[in-house]
Structures are given as C-alpha cells and as structure tokens.
Design goal:
heterodimer; A: alpha/beta; Rossmann fold; 5-stranded parallel β-sheet; 4-stranded antiparallel β-sheet; 9 strands; B: Rossmann fold; 8-stranded mixed β-sheet; 10 helices; binds adenosine-5'-triphosphate; binds adenosine-5'-diphosphate; binds magnesium ion
Chain lengths: 260, 313
C-alpha cells in the first residue's frame, strides 16, 4: 500500500506562505483505481509529487509497502522511487529537451543502470512501449519540440511505466488527449493492472471519467478534515454499479496476490 | 460581409531526418467576425500546427503552401516587422503549454503589463483590464504579479495566459486548449469569456479535446484526422450525428458513452496513404476507401465530410 499520512506542504513565495496541502491523508492499494478531484490550485499536484517521493513534505509521513520514506528527490533510493511513478500535468516541462523522445522513454532505465542505452533489450522495450501508448516509431527519433503535446504526454506515460512501478499517479493525463486516445491509454493501464497489480491514482477534472473509470473517488478538500481517522472514510465511496463491480474485482485480485 | 480570417488550401510539412512530416494537408476554413470555429480531433492530427501557421510561429525546417488572409491581407510571407505589429495589435494566441510560453526568470506582473502595453493599452488601462479578467477567474492580480510562473499550479498558469490573450480586445483569438487544468466552474467562466469577445465581433478559433466544452461553445466545428479536415459544419449538427465515421467513433469514446478507444493507430505523417487515412480503422470501410482519397462532400445539414459515403449525394 502507498500510504500518505497527514501530509502538509507549504511553499515560501514573495508575500508569504502558500499552504498547498494541509494535513491530507490518502492511501492507494495495489490494483486499486482511485480518482482524485478538486478545484484548480487545491494541492493535487503537490500531494502527487510528495507521494512520488519527488517533493519533501513539511510534515506527515509516507510509506510504500511498509517502507517509510525519509529521503526525498534524487537522494531517495532508485528502487524506492521506481515503485511510485508520476506522469506530470505538463509534459513539456517534464522532459529534457535535449533527449529524443525514444531516449526520454528509456532514460529512467539507463539512469538507474538497469540497462545500458546500447543494449538490444532497449530497442525491444522501446518499441513495445511505443506501441502500447500509441506512438508511431518515427516519433521516437524526434526531439520533444518536434512532437505534439499529446504525443509527448504519451511518451511520459511510457517512461513512467517502463520501470514497472507498483503505483502510478497520473496528474491530469487526459487534458492533453482526445477522448479516444485517452480511452486507449486507460485500456493500456488496465491491461498492466491486470498483469501486475498496479495501483493507479488518477487526478482529473473530468468527473464523469473519474466516476466511470475509478473504483473510488476522493476529493482533496475532504482529505484533510478527516485525516488520521482511518482509511476508507477519507475517500468518498462511489455508488455506480460499474464502479462497485470493478472494485470488487480488483479487491478479489488483490487478496489472491497478497501474502497472508 | 467579408470573412475576416480566411485560410485557403493550407499545407504544412516539416523536414525531418525521417522524411517530410505532413502535419497539415490542404486545410481551408473561413472565420467571419463574431464567429467561433472549434478545431477538434486526434492528438497529433495537426491542430496546433494550424494555429501556429496562422500566426507564423513555425520553426525553420518547414514548408508552407496555401494562403492565410486577415481582412484581405496575406499573412504568409509578410515582412517580420509588419507581422509583429499585426500580431501585437490584432491577433492573440492562448498557447497549449502555458508554462513554457512565459519567461521563467521574470515575475508575472511585469510580463502581463508589458503584453497588454504591446496591444496598445496604457499602463493604467492594462492594470484595470488585467485585474478584472483575472478576478473573474478567481486570481488576484497583485498576488500573482509578484510570482514566477513555476510557482503556480497548472490551472493557474492556464488562467494567466488566457487573461493575457484576452486583455487587448484582439480581432482574432486562437485558443489552443484554453481550459486544460481548469475545474468545471472555471471552464464555464472561460467559455463565457470566449463567448463575450466573440459577441464583440472577434473571430475565434478554439482547439479543444473537451467535447463538452465544444458542444457548449457551439458555432462551427472542424474535425481533423491525420493532417486533414475530415468534417466541417455547424457544431450542433456534429453532436447530433457526425457525418464522418471518425467523428462518430470519437463521440463513442466519451466516458459517458461507451468509453472505448477506436482500435488501431493513425498512420505516420511521413508515410500518409494515397487513400482515406481513416480507412484502416473505419467500421464502414468499402473498396473505394482504400483506393482513392475522398474529397470534402456535402452531407446533410450543411456539413462537409471527407468520406465516400457522402460522395453520391
Ligand atoms: N517541428 C516539428 N517537426 C516535425 N514534426 C512536427 C513538428 N511539430 C509538430 N510535428 C508533428 O506534426 C503533427 C501535428 O502536430 P500538432 O502539434 O499540430 O498536433 P495536435 O493536433 O495539436 O496534437 P495534440 O492534440 O496532441 O496537441 C504531429 O504528428 C507532430 O508530431
Ligand atoms: N513551486 C511553488 N512555489 C510556490 N507555490 C506553489 C508552487 N507549486 C505550487 N504552488 C502553489 O500551491 C498551491 C497548490 O498547487 P498545486 O498542487 O499545483 O494545485 P492543483 O494541482 O490542485 O491545481 C497553489 O496555490 C500553487 O500556486
Ligand atoms: Mg495540478
Ligand atoms: Mg496541440
């Protein structure tokens, strides 16, 4: 389980503090699909970056499958960071403009020395992931400024999934994508969920999408008020039959996968 | 009344290591003053390239053919000084990626005022207008003014570039995903702001993946697929019943409908087929679809559709 407890984070800026996240607790189980909604500026992306170990909170704790995180950002162990992957809201700001799209997808593997860029496996992996996220091969040789915003976003998703994370956080993945491509990516994520119990946190402004795709939907404004009061009440249960059926399915899978 | 913005047989190709990327093929549209044209379609189909071509913002490795006229003046090949003047005074762009379109090492206040001054507003007018526009969007100009762009959330960055584009009452507004990162309330406010400047007589081109916003904004719609306009008509008619199979399948992918993707992938733009580019994925495909390239044929309700189904009419 990815467990964030009473996370607080404020930013220092000219003219005072901005409290971005105020004592929010959120938990994501393996295999789960959790939606996170809330108005613009309510701290969703900040919480996402904390949960992905990229941003140190001022207060609160984060544990990943029982391992408590004490070190954040680049100093955090690769193995831990790879467990939780974040797809950023703005793909343009998330990739190195000097790397070709294909190199950017492989970068996390190469940087952590899991593979060398010259390895034959790299090419195989790259083509597999490109296909899964719907990128034609010609795009892989271009630089980020030579592909569209949605194409870059898909590359970022491939880059996140290539390290085989246990948890995936998608920060407004769909605002860059047409609805068919969005559906295709969610289908690709669902396929991976079925294979490897991936827990997915989907941050979105599309309430219909959250309600139909996610088993549960949490509103960030409600995470703080009830922080520490235990798990399920922090998230608002969603009643639609489809969602309930999905959750049951996921839970069943989870029980089977989890050691006693 | 003469069309304010006329785009005629516009084609754009990028020269790359892997050959020519045909990002836009023979696109023709016209937007009258006070009219709103939505551009929707598959990611990578050429929407942003269209927007950037209208504003001559393309990189150097590009070949452009066709014409773009604003009030009768040809914009393609216009001298840089004249172009800058025209862009500053009459045209505005809301870029798809707000964060990368502002200066990261300057606070926002100065940049916003400077942008408004370039549109011919006095410092005093600029402040007043910006304060009003940002206020409608729930942001305080004085608070925002002292910050850097990276200190704002994605949705706030979006609101900043929206306000910056609308500040000078431009004649032409090109908005590339103006509501990304915005919650439903802010989407509504943004839609109202766009409609307001449209009502004042500006020509609007709005690129969006948000089909609910598209339906709400109404006006006209152009559907793009693999570098071509495949459907062009009144937005209401499109949502009633798309004339092109791609449009129909796209609407079905909405989460409130079936939420399923269209199987297959769009072709590489470096190797576009000589026949209908959607044929591979089209449930209605027949022999002719893989033999020839369809024109834009008249379909019911004043719609044009690039599909042989409508060729016989
Ligand atoms: N500088 C460039 N060099 C080569 N190809 C480019 C360049 N810029 C864009 N392209 C390609 O042109 C096509 C159209 O790009 P464009 O940015 O217009 O897509 P879009 O419809 O706006 O997509 P999205 O919805 O994802 O933003 C894409 O396939 C893209 O990869
Ligand atoms: N690097 C930063 N410096 C200062 N303030 C920031 C920074 N990043 C975000 N903020 C502020 O924190 C708040 C929450 O931002 P964010 O988590 O991005 O919101 P959301 O993703 O919910 O839209 C906003 O008020 C934003 O302006
Ligand atoms: Mg955000
Ligand atoms: Mg675009």
């Amino acid at each position: 389980m990815l467990r964030a407890e009473r996370i607080s984070k404020s930013y220092r800026a000219s003219g005072g503090h901005v409290v971005a996240v105020d004592g929010a607790s959120l938990q994501l189980e393996r295999g789960q699909r959790l939606g996170l909604v809330g108005p613009s500026g309510s701290g969703k992306s900040t919480l996402a970056q904390v949960m992905a170990m990229l941003l140190a909170p001022d207060d609160g704790s984060l544990t990943v499958d029982g391992d408590r995180i004490d070190v954040w950002g680049v100093h955090c162990r690769c193995e831990l960071r790879h467990r939780v992957q974040l797809v950023f809201q703005s793909p343009r700001m998330a990739v190195d403009p000097r790397l070709r799209v294909g190199e950017a997808i492989l970068e996390p593997l190469v940087a952590s020395r899991l593979l060398a860029a010259r390895d034959a496996e790299c090419a195989v992996l790259l083509h597999d992931w490109a296909t899964r996220v719907g990128l034609t091969y010609d795009l892989l040789e271009r630089f980020p400024h030579e592909v569209s915003e949605g194409q870059l976003q898909r590359a970022c998703l491939a880059r996140a999934l290539i390290v085989a994370p246990r948890y995936l956080i998608c920060d407004e993945l769909s605002s860059m994508l047409d609805v068919s491509t969005q559906a295709a990516l969610l289908e690709a994520i669902a396929a991976i969920q079925a294979e490897q119990e991936l827990g997915v946190l989907l941050i979105t402004h599309d309430r219909v999408l959250a309600d139909t795709w996610c088993g549960e939907v949490a509103d960030i404004r409600e995470l703080a008020a009830r922080s520490g009061e235990g798990e399920a009440d922090a998230t608002q249960r969603h009643a639609s039959a489809r969602a309930a059926a999905l959750s049951a399915l996921v839970r069943g899978r989870q029980r089977r996968a989890m050691p006693p | 009344m003469s069309a304010l913005l006329e785009v005629d047989a516009l084609s754009v190709g990028f020269r790359t290591r892997r050959g020519i990327v045909r990002a836009l093929s023979e696109a023709s549209v016209a937007i009258e003053p006070g009219e709103l044209l939505l551009v929707v379609g598959e990611s990578g189909s050429g929407k942003t390239v269209l927007a950037h071509t209208l504003l001559s913002l393309l990189p150097r490795n590009v070949d452009v053919a066709g014409s773009v006229r604003l009030g009768g003046t040809e914009l393609l090949g216009l001298a840089p000084a004249a172009l800058r003047e025209l862009r500053a005074r009459r045209m505005a762009l809301i870029p798809q990626s707000p964060a990368s379109s502002l200066n990261p090492v300057r606070t926002l206040g100065g940049q916003l005022i400077e942008g408004a001054r370039a549109r011919g507003l006095s410092e005093e007018q600029a402040r007043r207008r910006l304060r009003a526009l940002l206020g409608e969007l729930g942001l305080d100009f004085d608070f925002i003014g002292g910050r850097y762009i990276h200190q704002l959330s994605g949705g706030m960055q979006q609101r900043i570039v929206n306000a910056m584009a609308l500040v000078g009452e431009p004649d032409v507004v090109i908005a590339d995903e103006p509501t990304s990162g915005l919650d439903s309330e802010l989407v509504e406010t943004t839609a109202a702001q766009l409609q307001e400047i449209s009502a004042r007589g500006a020509s609007l081109l709005v690129i969006t993946h948000d089909l609910r916003l598209a339906q709400r904004l109404a006006g006209w719609i152009a559907l793009l697929y693999a570098s071509r306009i495949v459907e062009l008509g009144p937005t209401a008619a499109f949502f009633e019943a798309p004339a092109h199979p791609y449009g129909r399948e796209l609407l079905r992918a909405l989460p409130e409908r079936e939420g399923k993707s269209i199987p297959g992938m769009a072709p590489e733009l470096t190797a576009l087929p000589g026949h209908c580019a959607f044929a591979d994925r089209c449930p209605d495909r027949f022999d002719r679809c893989t033999e020839a390239l369809p024109d834009l044929y008249p379909a019911p309700d004043g719609v044009l559709a690039r599909c042989f189904v409508h060729a016989a009419r």
